[in-house]
Design a protein that fits this description.
InterPro entries: Glyco_trans_2-like, Nucleotide-diphossugar_trans. The chain has 317 residues and is an alpha/beta fold. Helices cover 43% and strands 16% of the residues. It has 2 domains: 199 residues, Spore Coat Polysaccharide Biosynthesis Protein SpsA, Chain A, CATH 3.90.550; 58 residues, no CATH class. The termini are far apart. The relative contact order is 0.14. The model has no long low-confidence stretch (mean pLDDT 92).
């Protein structure tokens, strides 16, 4: 496997940052890591400075303030010189050899982006018979230690055994995802560097708000350009979800965070409405459509500004 560059953003949440770094180095080969720190506290900064001196494959960019997801990743990406690059959040537990496994998909020249299996609400947790995310919340509430949480959630199995048990319960899915309504989460994904740096793919408009929809826009644009966008059924990584957002008490649904939501909808309105109409024609109920991630998140973040065309498409005929 050729060397791959990974980009990570950090913003406080020291315990998760330390856990993620340890998990990454224990389970990943032949990579370089560029970390963009968004004005973290001294615990995180001191840890990163020590890491940078101890590891010759780590480089850290220190920002005095939180500039947001898009700006952080864009600035860090300018330093990437490998053919493939990955994006990872700072609250992830990794499967052994996850990066090598994901990179193999790019032997197909039509593949533009690959992500791992993670906490998907539509999948059943193999050991509790609960939806994955609900099973995780139960574990999270009862175990403050991050290592203990992972062990309990995996039922003391390896990641590789866990994902096999997951598919034994749920059945395998088609790795090429449907766009719309799906996307690859920016918490962990691998892509071609030339695509991520291309102004035809990456939209600078998302820099106007700190969070939201830049990852969905990236997947949708790749699909529009004819690339395959895949979720691997061979790799599971565990995303603790929103550790920095929670610790820093950021309200991602606040008015100043809604810009990206509205911009994304306006940019892709025709695609979204056409998808709704197609789903209705195939017999999907309005409830099923409204429960899809894209529609659900639009209703949550801009409840008072739902566009007329969207409302019309979601009405019974």
């Amino acid at each position: 496997m050729k060397k791959i560059t990974l980009l990570m953003t950090t913003w406080n949440a020291f315990d998760h940052v330390k856990f993620t770094i340890n998990s990454l180095f224990a389970n990943t080969n032949n990579f370089s890591l560029i970390i963009f720190d968004n004005g973290s506290n001294s615990d995180v900064v001191n840890f990163l400075k020590k890491l940078e001196t101890e590891k010759d494959n780590v480089r850290v960019i220190y920002s005095p303030e939180n500039v947001g997801v898009w700006k952080s990743r864009f600035e860090a990406s300018q330093l990437v010189d490998t053919d493939l690059m990955g994006i990872i959040d700072s609250d992830i537990a990794f499967q052994k050899n996850w990066l090598e496994t994901l990179s193999e998909y790019f032997q197909d020249s039509e593949v533009g982006q690959v992500g791992p299996t993670k906490l998907f609400s539509h999948l059943i947790h193999p050991y509790t018979n609960l939806p994955m995310h609900l099973a995780w919340r139960e574990v999270e509430k009862s175990n403050p230690n991050l290592n203990d949480q992972i062990k309990k959630y995996l039922n003391d199995n390896s990641f590789r055994n866990f994902i096999q048990d997951l598919w034994n319960v749920n059945g395998y899915f088609n790795e090429e995802i449907s766009i719309p309504p799906h996307c690859i989460s920016g918490c962990c994904m691998l892509t071609r560097t030339n695509l991520y740096k291309s102004p035809k793919v990456v939209d600078v408009e998302y820099a106007k708000s700190k969070y939201g929809f830049e990852d969905m826009d990236y997947s949708w644009k790749l699909k529009e350009l004819g690339y395959k966008v895949l979720i691997s059924n061979k790799v599971y990584v565990h995303h603790f979800e929103h550790s920095s957002v929670d610790e820093n008490q950021l309200n991602i649904n606040a008015p100043d965070q809604q810009y990206n939501t509205l911009y994304f909808y306006q940019k892709w309105e025709e695609t979204i409405v056409d998808w709704i109409i197609s789903e209705k024609e195939m017999g999907k109920s309005l409830q099923e459509i409204q429960e899809s991630f894209i529609i659900n998140i639009l209703y949550k973040t801009i409840p008072k500004n739902i566009p007329t065309k969207l409302l019309a498409a979601l009405k019974d005929e």
